[in-house]
Amino acid sequence: MGDERPPAIWLAEQRPRRPRLTAERIARAAVAVLDAEGASGLSMRRLAARLGVSAMSLYEYVNSKEDVLDLAVDEAFAEVELAAADGVPWREALAQQLRQGRDVMRRHPWLPAVMSTRALLGPNSLALSERFYAILTAAGLDGPRLTAVVGALTYYVQGYAAMENFWREVHRDPAREAELRAAAQQYLESRRADYPTLARQADLVGTDDFDESFELGLGTVLDGIEAQLRSGGGHRRRRPPR
Question: Per UniProt, which keywords does this protein have (predicted)?
Answer without folding.
Answer: DNA-binding, Repressor, Transcription, Transcription regulation
